[in-house]
Amino acid sequence: MKEPRGGRLDGVDVLRGLCVLQVMLHHIHLRFRLNDYPVEDALPGFLNQVMFWSGYYAVIMFFVIS
Predict the structure, then answer these.
(1) pLDDT in tens, 1-35
(2) SS3 of the chain
(3) What distance in Å separates the CA atoms of residue 57 and residue 46, rounded to the nearest whole number?
(4) What pairs with residue 5 in β-bridges?
(5) Do 23 and 58 contact (CB within 8 A), yes or no?
């Protein structure tokens, strides 16, 4: 098992990075929708919701794990 560097855990850093990625995807998707780009049909409905509309929950999770 790896020793934490400077008191940081690699797994928690990965979770933070995934949260940041989700927030960025959410903001990009909002920009596309506000500019009337047809992005709703790019992915199936469930995958679209998971990929682009979970940014709100990612912010909460980021602050909880931090």
Answers:
(1) 566 667 788 899 999 999 999 899 888 888 888 88
(2) CCCCECCECHHHHHHHHHHHHHHHHHHHHHHHHHCCCCCCCCCCHHHHHHHHCCHHHHHHHHHHHC
(3) 16
(4) 8
(5) yes
